[in-house]
Design a protein that fits this description.
437 residues; alpha/beta; 6-stranded mixed beta sheet; 12 helices
């Protein structure tokens, strides 16, 4: 019998009864074909590979990460809670030492869901990885965590959630936002005033092939991880860079994904996008499982694969090399960049417009963060969504809050003028509570 070099836990949740619409690319068949493939290949018969059943995440798990307006129940359905719960099961399996690696093959995805949630963005309601990471910290203590987002779309939700957190390094490689939803993810998006450099974005040009992805991994992602020294590496494993994906323009293959996984060695991978339901997902997911288990994946091959489908022009090769150099240099200079952007400032404000493409909602945000040498800094967001008739104030006391940031936060929450807001929220992370008025 075949034996895995590393023990791997798999969580499957196809969400049979949930789809945005019957023909929407984000529908249950995404995982059903993978499930067939995994069964057919006898993956679950390999010694060391264990299947786990998902469970529902608690409302509290979601409230630790999001301000859902008006509340979690109105914005997250059972499928979302099971997708998040599947990731929690994967995390427990790894953190309790039952397995060495885990892969949560769940849907709906999550990486476009931001801190504040009025509805669905890019097929996501709640952020699966962030809910998992904050659960891990709550249950297993403080951890330095790196999230490597290899989905073809920029994970703008994960970026938003960890914008102020230097204990969570967020690195995203994705198709250039000038050519794809959600239109963000450039080098100047580099983290907030107290976490400068801990968000890194590498926008890859359309038609990036096998070589480009692996180059970025070896020349940017791995060196940065080596500097950051995380306790855990999480992979937001989006499979939509595949050359057959219908909604993107990249040229990556199943074996390429497996090689990437082998080099990255994530402790936990969580499925994100991937919409080539028959042509890519079963092969990519199989490749990732084998790579996680330390098994041979070289026979994993799409039926229509040819080397020409994954090749890239020389100018793309040169461009990516340049981009990686520039991004790595910025990472190395993060302290200087922080000093420049915060010099003489007590607080930093950003204005944002967040578009909810699935539901056609527009959110207008003003976010303010205290510049703080002691902690991630108190943050508060004034947010309006006219279509929903909401105008909220959300106050965030960070996990590692210093006494000043805590006091300021409590004061702000107490003194906020209830008449000018439809609701006022206080997310108090050290006490692990959400107060809503
Ligand atoms: Zn990404
Ligand atoms: Zn995607
Ligand atoms: Zn502080």
């Amino acid at each position: 019998m075949l034996k895995a070099a590393r023990r791997v836990g798999l969580v499957f949740f196809p969400a049979y009864d949930w789809a945005i619409s019957p023909t929407h690319p984000e529908r249950e068949e995404r995982l059903l074909y993978t499930q067939d493939q995994v069964w057919e290949e006898g993956v679950l018969d390999i010694e060391g590979i264990t299947e786990y059943r998902p469970r529902l995440a608690d409302i509290k798990d979601v409230e630790r990460v999001h301000i859902c307006v008006p509340d979690v129940r109105s914005r997250a359905g059972e499928s979302d809670l099971i997708a998040a719960g599947g990731a929690l099961v994967a995390a427990d399996a790894v953190l309790q030492g039952e397995v060495d690696r885990a892969f949560a093959i769940v849907r709906p995805p999550g990486h476009h869901a931001q801190r504040i949630v009025y509805g669905n963005r890019g097929f996501c309601n709640i952020n699966i990885e962030a809910i998992m990471i904050e659960y891990i910290r709550q249950r297993y203590g403080p951890k330095r965590i790196a999230i490597v987002d290899t989905d073809c779309h920029h994970g703008d939700g994960t970026q938003d959630i960890y914008w102020h957190d230097k204990d969570t390094l967020y690195i995203s490689i994705h198709q250039d936002g000038r050519t794809l939803y959600p239109g963000t993810g450039f080098l100047p998006e580099f983290g907030g005033p107290n976490a400068c450099g801990y968000t890194l974005n590498l926008p890859l040009p359309p038609q990036t092939g096998e070589e480009g992805f692996l180059y970025a991994l070896e020349n940017l992602i791995l060196p940065v991880l080596n500097d950051f020294r995380p306790d855990l590496i999480i992979n937001s494993a989006g499979q939509d860079n595949h050359y057959t994906d219908p909604i993107t323009n990249m040229r990556f293959s199943a074996r390429g994904y497996a090689r990437l996984t082998e080099l990255l060695q994530p402790h936990i991978a969580v499925l994100e996008g991937g919409y080539s339901i028959e042509g890519a997902l079963p092969y990519v997911n199989l490749g990732i499982i084998l790579a996680l288990a330390g098994l041979d994946y070289t026979y994993v091959r799409e039926p229509d694969y040819t080397p020409a489908k994954v090749s890239q022009p020389q100018e793309i090769t040169d461009y990516i090399a340049h981009l990686c150099r520039e991004t790595y240099a910025a990472w190395q200079q993060r302290e200087e960049i922080r000093a420049q952007t915060t010099r003489g400032k007590k607080e930093i404000t950003r204005q944002r417009r967040v578009y909810y493409d699935t539901e056609g909602l527009l959110e207008i945000q003003k976010e303010t963060t205290l510049v703080c040498e002691e902690c991630a800094g108190l943050t508060w967001i004034d947010s309006r969504c006219s279509e929903r008739g909401e105008h909220i104030l959300a106050v965030f006391i960070p996990r590692d809050a210093c006494p000043r940031c805590r006091q300021e936060g409590e004061k702000l929450f107490r003194q906020a003028d209830r008449r000018s807001y439809t609701r006022v929220y206080l997310q108090d992370r050290p006490r692990d509570i959400l107060v809503r008025e």
